[in-house]
Design a protein that fits this description.
363 residues, mainly alpha, 0% strand
Length: 363
């Protein structure tokens, strides 16, 4: 499959999502009575999903139909304005910023719907049918979310996220036809890799936040090295799989890459926040252990599923390897609960697991 080159405007588009992802990640840094209230965990998920889906919408359109024409650039420019508006409206105080958030999100989705409808006019056969299906399907999802403006209290949010859920289900419902218009695998893999770099940027922000180069220099240096080992091993495992193990000739609908990365990205945000939670906040050890190892397990499963599908058969993770990694993870998790350890040891365990994960999947 020929490699569809990533355009500079796509990289510019990604840049706008840096602030949105940071806002979602920082939602988890709300510690009350040594715990993170479930309200903030739920808000993290509710903030993260629209960010991810907004990015996915434009990325998949460009992958299948984008041509980097003046028209495409203008539509992307308009969409970027709505992305900035949505990002500026992201807050744990949903009620106060609901209207600008809704306008930003609906603007993003309607632009994508219009782009598909325009693409359908010049395409034929399966490509025309898929563009038409996605264009009108996304329009319906956006209109359902728009209906939330007629309600108050929790009903408003239920309607909003019902529309988002339907929007996300549209490609799955039409998978039978969509897979006939296969994604450009090299382009999609590269696009997700570029957004993953932004997520790794959140790790660096967290590491910088906990490093105190004043009175606790030696302790800070140890934290810096330890935390960076976690990040480096995750980066190494992810991108070496991306570059060396992926079958770039795969012709699929790309849905495992798309939906699998929702869990990968959310878990990465949580692990990035764990660095600050462990060293800057007074949080119950068992809460920290739970958050850390649940997020690490979701990341492990997410990357395993995504890469298993797109790896060359000879490079896929074997059953014995999967069982070994799962057993090590559960053992470390149990030890963190049962033994009187601190946040340093938790990071050591996390580093050990990700080093092992990288070693086993890349050898």
């Amino acid at each position: 499959m020929p490699h569809k080159k990533v355009k500079w405007i796509e990289l510019f588009y990604d840049l706008i999502f840096v602030a949105a992802i940071a806002t979602a990640t920082h939602t988890l840094l709300h510690v009350e009575n040594k715990t993170i209230p479930m309200e903030y965990i739920a808000k993290f998920v509710l903030i993260f999903i629209p960010i991810w889906w907004a990015w996915v919408g434009q990325t998949l359109y460009i992958n299948r139909y984008g041509e980097d024409t003046t028209k495409d650039r203008i539509w992307m420019g308009i969409q970027m304005i709505f992305v900035i508006l949505m990002t500026a409206s992201l807050s744990v105080n949903f009620d106060a910023y609901y209207l600008p958030f809704l306008v930003g999100y609906l603007g993003i989705r309607l632009v994508v719907a219009i782009q598909y409808m325009q693409a359908a006019k010049k395409e034929s056969g399966e490509r025309k049918m898929v563009a038409t299906f996605l264009g009108y399907g996304f329009f319906i999802g956006a209109m359902i979310s728009l209906g939330s403006t007629f309600f108050d209290s929790w009903v408003r949010y239920f309607i909003l996220y019902l529309g988002i859920a339907i929007d996300m289900l549209i490609p799955l419902i039409g998978r039978k036809h969509i897979k006939k218009v296969a994604i450009n695998t090299p382009h999609l893999v590269e696009r997700f890799g570029l957004l993953t770099i932004i997520l790794f940027g959140e790790f660096i922000v967290s590491i910088i936040a906990v490093v105190d180069v004043g009175d606790q220099l030696y302790k800070s240096l140890f934290i810096l090295v330890l935390s960076f080992i976690v990040v480096l091993s995750m980066w190494w495992q992810y991108f070496d799989n991306l570059d060396k193990k992926i079958d770039q000739g795969s012709r699929t609908s790309g849905q495992i890459i798309v939906y699998g990365h929702l869990f990968i990205y959310m878990s990465m945000s949580v692990i990035a926040s764990v660095i600050q939670l462990g060293f800057l906040y007074e949080i119950d050890k068992n809460i920290l252990v739970t958050i850390t190892f649940v997020a690490a397990f979701i990341y492990f499963i997410g990357t395993t599923v995504v890469f298993h599908k797109y790896r060359r058969v000879s490079d896929r993770l074997g059953v014995k390897q999967f069982i070994t990694l799962s057993t090590v993870h559960v053992s470390l998790w149990g030890a963190a609960y049962l033994l009187p350890i601190n946040e340093m040891i938790i990071q050591v365990e996390l580093a050990f697991f990700f080093i092992l994960y990288a070693f086993i999947t890349l050898k």
